[in-house]
Each structure stands twice: as structure tokens, then as C-alpha cells.
């Protein structure tokens, strides 16, 4: 009967997940974010490093459809930089000069011929298109969390599984190791680990080292919980049965113990992804993460550290909005999965 | 011919509490030897001691276990593991909990063959289907693909026996193999165990069911609070019990 219960449990869990409208909404939000990141080359009008200093902090450009009372192909007006009485930048529309937008040129969805430029979500200090930089940055920010979690997951399951299954001194050593990682507050541990990384790393090496740093801060808590589950699972009859049949320990851990923890692990993973996205942003904001000109949501936000740019160019806060969307979506989905897999919660829901 | 298994002066204790006290007996080749006794008499502990799978709190204080001429207690861990499942199989009381609910019966039998043999996938499948039909499962192909919960109790217990014998062991330890089955299934499973003798497999039957013992066992050891109170051929022990405890047990069953 146990198997019947198990199968229907998974079914029930997914049914319950599907009924959670908020979770489905967040799932779609993530699908869209990841989709835009993956197809950034196509969707973005400019490459992430494409700059034009004549358009520093250019505000979002309106795309015009109506010219002298008639509908025409979308175009943008030329904009020229002037300064007002208090030396603030003002971009003035030049109604005589129009640049038509063109579609599907040079492998990009939208574009405009130089010297015209258009900024859907405004420009940064160096006149780079924020829209493009956000979606190229999404590639870094959204992948770094997943990769970091992937490594944490493997470490956590492996170390937790081994500690719980064998118990004894091995358990003690591994758990003390976990505690050494857990006793240092996450952000400081991250800074310390980052300090150990050589400064002359290129961007790929920095990316990899950030992934590893993230993985190292999160595996310990997962390992501890998996260890607790393994401690109880190893008392199951089928584990003893597998032992009497001479099945090697490592096979027992991977086949008979870890699969039973999967529903919990997946829910935890989702929650961890969101904390890793935040952690990467934190590192990058203080300038220790991915380095300019390669964008990540964190280092895009670091441009918004000063009060002046935020007041005069509030659109540079947009990456923060997307960090919020991504983090919240992963959290909501993680919570929904945890509730869906937890029969206690579900029964409460029925009442 | 030497007996297959010789247990001598086995003493198992948890802390100062002695669970199995100076137990000695032998299992001859191709015979069924039963260990009988009430709950807590140390029957199961003896079974697990042979496989060296006692829980860490329990320890073997003294004694020796000689299997096929080798001392199991002195064997390196790796060789002991090769012995489990390959030379000694074990059948549990509750097959539902002794199978992992996440894998098919065929997969779990395969796991044993993978651990102990170098056979190819095809050879292993052939062997598994052969073994499943040997334990008289009506539809071995179906049983192979079934998950534990999809089989009936009797079929599961047969699958369990198949798992214990798939590598061709010389000893099967059956720990209350029929306690959870109804009486007709009990008789069928016992008949199955009886037929294993013809394959020269010895069985160490752990049970409290004297009725079953008198049907299938050749020899019986009566255990009480970890001590052997009486042992000998079944006819003699059940027919003319010498010890009070044996008489009590027999009375209960009549």
C-alpha cells in the first residue's frame, strides 16, 4: 500500500500545486524572464557593451506612430542633449529628423539606423541601452543562482546522505564541517571567500568563482536536513533488506535513501535559488561580483548607488524590480511546492 | 560432510544485558533447521548476527560462526558483503516494507545480481525470470515489471524468496516468512521452502509457529530468553518434549 500512497501523494501534490494560482503565475513569470534572457541576442536592440556617450542618462524614448496626423511605420525622433538652467540634462526632440525603426535586421528584433538611437527603458551613464543590458544581465543573474544551487544540491545530498547513513564518527566530522560553514553569517562568508579569489581573473573565471562561492554558502543547511532524513530512512526494512543482499552502501544511499528526500529537496532548492540570486546581486552591488562592462542585475543596480542618478534617472532602478520579480517567484514556487508535498498543510487547506 | 553453518557459544549483548547466551547449533547442508521461541527470545538477533548486520548498539561478546568453512566474524568487511546475498540470502517477515516502494520487483532482483555477478543485462533478466518462475509466481513477466504494492501478499513473499535465492546461495535465513500470511498461503510458502532443499539450499527458519516447524523442519532449536532449552530432530523435540518450556509451547499450539 505504501507505493499507492506515494504515487497518489505525488499526484495530489501536483494537483495542489496547479490549484495555487499565485504559484502558476510566478511560474509563468519565470518562464518569461528566462525566455527573454535566453533570447536576449534577438530581443535586445543593442549589444550589452554598445555605448554612445552623447546619450548619457537618456530617458526612455517614446516610439512614435503618428506623423502629421497620419499613421506610419514606427519611428523615433532625433534627440539632442541640452542643459537647463540648473545644468540638468534635457533631451530635446528634434521634430525634423526622424529615424524609422526596422524589424529583424542583423538578427535583432528591433533596431534603428545610426546615428539615431532609441532607449525603451532609458540609458545608463555611458549611453548604453538599459533594456538590452537588463536582458543580457538576466543571463548572468538567473543562471548563476541555478548553477550555484546545482552544486549545493549535489554537495548537500551527498554529504547529508553519507553522514546520515553511516552515522557515528563520520557523521560527527561532516556535521561539524557543516556547522563551520553555517556559523559565519552568509554575506561575510561570501566576502571572505571572494577575498580569496585572485584579482586578475577574467570574466569567465569570476563567474565560475562566484558560482562556487554561492554553492559553498548554501550546501550546509541542505546537508543537515538530508542527514536527518537519512537517519530515519536508514532504519527502513528495505534498507536492511538491501544490506542482507550485499548491495553496496553507495548504491543503497543513492537508490534507497536519497530518492525519498526528493520532494523536500526540490522545494528547498527553489527557495535557495532565490537567495543565491540575491546574494549575487549583493556581491555585484558592492563591486565584487561580475565586472563591468558585462552586465548582471547586481552590477546594474550598483549604478544606482548614488542619490543623484536615482533622482534624475530613476529608470536605472529597473534591474531591482526584476530581481524582486525573480526572487519572489522562486520563493512563491518553493513555498507552494513545500505546501503541496506536505500532507499536513494540505489537510488544513481542505478544512 | 561438514555442516554448512556451525554456530558455537554465540553470545550477543546490548550493554550489560545479554540477548543471546551461549547458543550453539549446526545447520547441515540441504536441511531445514528451525529456531523457535517466543518474542524477545533472541531468534532474530541470531539471524542478523550471522550476516553481521546487528544494530551498532548490539555486540557479539563471544563465540564463532563458521560458514562453508570460513569464520564469518573474522572476515574483512568487503568479503562479508560479497557473502551477503550471494552465499546467504534472507527472507523477511513483511515483504512490503522489505521492498523499496520506488522500484519494480525485477529492478530490485537485478540489483542483487549487479552487486554480485558480472552477468550481462540479458543474462540477468533471464536469470531473474527463471527465479521468479521457480518460486511459482503465476506470471513472472508481470511480476518482473510490478511495483511491490501491485502484487498480493503471497506473491510478494514469493518475490522475496526469489530475491534471496537469485544468486544461488547455500543458506537462506527466513525470519518469520509466513507470519503475515493466511493459512493456505503459509502452507504454500512452506512447501516452496521445502522444495528448496532439493536444490541443496539449507534454510534457517526463524519462527514461533511450531505447527509449521513440524511440517517442514528437520531439526529444531527451542530458544528461551536467549538460551537454548532444547534441540534435536523435529520428531523427537515435538514428539517427546523434555523441557517444560517446550511442552508449554506445544500446548499453546494444540
Outline of the structure:
The complex is a heterodimer of chains A (351) and B (254). Chain A has 351 residues and is α+β, with helices and mostly antiparallel strands. Helices cover 62% and strands 11% of the residues of chain A.
Number of discrete helical segments of chain B:
11
Low-confidence parts of chain A lasting 5 or more residues at pLDDT below 50? 1-6, 344-351
Strand content of chain A: 5-15%
- The radius of gyration of chain A is 26 Å
Shape of chain B: globular
Could you walk me through the main structural features you see in this protein, from its secondary elements to its overall organization?
The complex is a heterodimer of chains A (351) and B (254). Helices cover 62% and strands 11% of the residues of chain A. By secondary structure, chain A is an alpha+beta fold. In chain A, helix 4 crosses helix 10, helix 6 (186-195) packs across helix 7 and helix 8 (237-244) packs antiparallel against helix 9. The longest helix of chain A is centred in the middle third of the chain and has 37 residues, at 130-166. Chain A is elongated, with a radius of gyration of 26 Å. The two termini of chain A are 25 Å apart. Chain B is α/β, with parallel strands linked by helices and 254 residues long. In chain B, the strands form two sheets. A six-stranded mixed sheet of chain B has the order 6-7-8-3-9-10, sandwiched between helices. A four-stranded antiparallel sheet of chain B has the order 2-1-4-5, with helices on one face. In chain B, helix 7 runs parallel beside helix 8 (183-196). Chain B is globular, with a radius of gyration of 18 Å. The interface between A and B is medium-sized, with 24 and 33 residues.
Layout: helices, strands, pairs:
The complex is a heterodimer of chains A (351) and B (254).
Chain A: H1 2-19, H2 21-38, H3 40-43, E1 64-67, E2 70-83, E3 89-105, E4 108-112, H4 130-166, H5 168-182, H6 186-195, H7 203-233, H8 237-244, H9 249-257, H10 262-285, H11 297-302, H12 307-312, H13 318-341, H14 343-350
Helix pairs in contact in A: 1-13, 2-4, 2-13, 4-5, 4-7, 4-10, 5-7, 6-7, 7-10, 8-9, 10-13
Chain B: E1 5-14, E2 17-27, E3 32-36, H1 43-51, E4 58-67, E5 70-71, H2 77-83, E6 88-91, H3 95-98, H4 105-116, H5 121-134, H6 140-145, H7 153-165, E7 171-175, H8 183-196, E8 202-207, H9 210-216, E9 219-224, E10 227-233, H10 234-239, H11 244-253
Parallel strand pairs in B: 3-8, 3-9, 6-7, 7-8
Antiparallel strand pairs in B: 1-2, 1-4, 4-5, 9-10
